[in-house]
């Protein structure tokens, strides 16, 4: 047990001084203190008057049941029991030798002499009556056994010593509990714990075993997901009892308390006691558990799980302070579980979104490829029929209708292909510095004939000097062309369109396209960027379009770190602005 020895140096030094003082006042050369530890063990924390025994025994453990058996064979004088060497039960002496120090004093035949295995022991108990430590006195000065009168007088003289030992033990264990709670919080706040529920539970269990000084501990999570549910207690709880425990944990979380289950008795939940108190009796006794404590964990009003803490027979009873500490840890662990669960869900959703996005890009690529070839065949044959001198007027009109349909389908496929390309994260834009004004001027040149045919005038306004931005010139040119094409398409003859570049106060650039066209209703503006969206305005539906243009523009601007802004009113024109980052 040396690696898990009780208390810090200050507490052990204080108990050593208390033992030395008590031994001197009582007339003994040797005194020792053993504290009760988990798993029915005792640990020497102070030995005075015997340096070699101190070197060998401090930090080591012995079985509590053996010492209880030895004390039971002695004679009590108040809080002190004198255990004579001749009172040991058969076999008990051999068991005690493994964890005890036998003083090097002569064994005599005189009943009045102190024998090597004689001892005086006092049980150190707290206010609840729980055994917290054993206090030993050995080797009286003169090596004579105390008289009955001396033994009866010894008990009241040690009362202050024993109460001081309890105080030191409780203070040190409280400090240990505080340190352990802080350690547990560090565990649940660690980076791996924040992202994986099972990792969090494994790390938390190891820390909480020490923090709560229990022999076994399970952490059950009620969330609907694949979380490892341990069975380290070995209780093999059936389904009905498990559901009852979940319900008890929910009630305990609401009332902020713990539930304590002992053989034949349940404390803190009358419903669980009435239904299943008898069920727990046999498993607890069979496994040697003195108590099973249920501490709920959760966040706000929601219970997310429970801690099942078990102490074996011989361990000290569960205290109110430990119950409060377990509830506090339930809050910390509940928040950590909720955060880790949310992180895992986000990761799964992100992975699903990536898979969906990859499937969407694959589908668009395959769709445009598979449709393009038969569409080319259809268009070629329709054009042949439309120009065939042998065809009558009705067949020509039908062929021309097919051509118009293939042209529209061609526009749609071209738009889908571009949308797939500009929204594909695996195909980032080729970034370079270029003159945005030059792109606008080239767009006007390419669109001039179309605008002139529609009776619309294009104007260049704003800054006409070099205005450089960082981006993919091909994609930005496509976005600008898309906006100008839309402006021409939804304007009427004699309307004007103003195109220009402005410098913003933050150092960025803005391209604007303002028209006098039919405008966009407020209801339609909410859906403008949805793929394949067509306006509900009858005038707009009469004009050709695929409903992909603005969606493509937004994708292009987002992948360049910019944004799109639209202001419009039905019947009063539209202004679209592309904001480029500084």
Keywords:
single chain; 582 residues; alpha+beta; 7-stranded antiparallel sheet; 5-stranded antiparallel sheet; 16 helices
**What is the number of beta strands?**
19
Largest beta-sheet characterization = 7 strands, antiparallel
Main β-sheet, spatial strand arrangement: 3-2-1-7-6-5-4
Low-pLDDT runs of 5+ residues are: none
| Percent of sequence in beta strands | 15-25%
Query: Could you estimate the helical fraction of the residues in percent?
Result: 40-55%
Structural class by SSE content: alpha+beta
Please report the number of helical segments.
Answer: 16
Distance between the termini: 65 Å
Instruction: Give the overall silhouette.
Output: elongated
Mean pLDDT: 85
CA gyration radius, whole angstroms? 43 Å
Explain this structure to me?
It is a single chain. The chain has 16 helices and 19 strands. It is elongated. The model has no long low-confidence stretch (mean pLDDT 85). α7 runs antiparallel to α10 (320-386) and α12 (436-453) packs parallel to α13 (473-489). By secondary structure, it is α+β, with helices and mostly antiparallel strands. It has helices spanning 9-26, 51-57, 64-72, 92-97, 148-188, 191-195, 197-211, 239-255, 270-287, 320-386, 393-422, 436-453, 473-489, 522-525, 538-541, 549-559, and strands at residues 28-37, 41-48, 61-63, 75-77, 80-83, 119-125, 131-140, 216-221, 259-262, 265-267, 289-299, 302-312, 432-435, 457-462, 468-471, 496-503, 509-515, 563-568, 574-580. A seven-stranded antiparallel sheet has the order 3-2-1-7-6-5-4. Strands 8-12-11-9-10 form a five-stranded antiparallel sheet, sandwiched between helices.
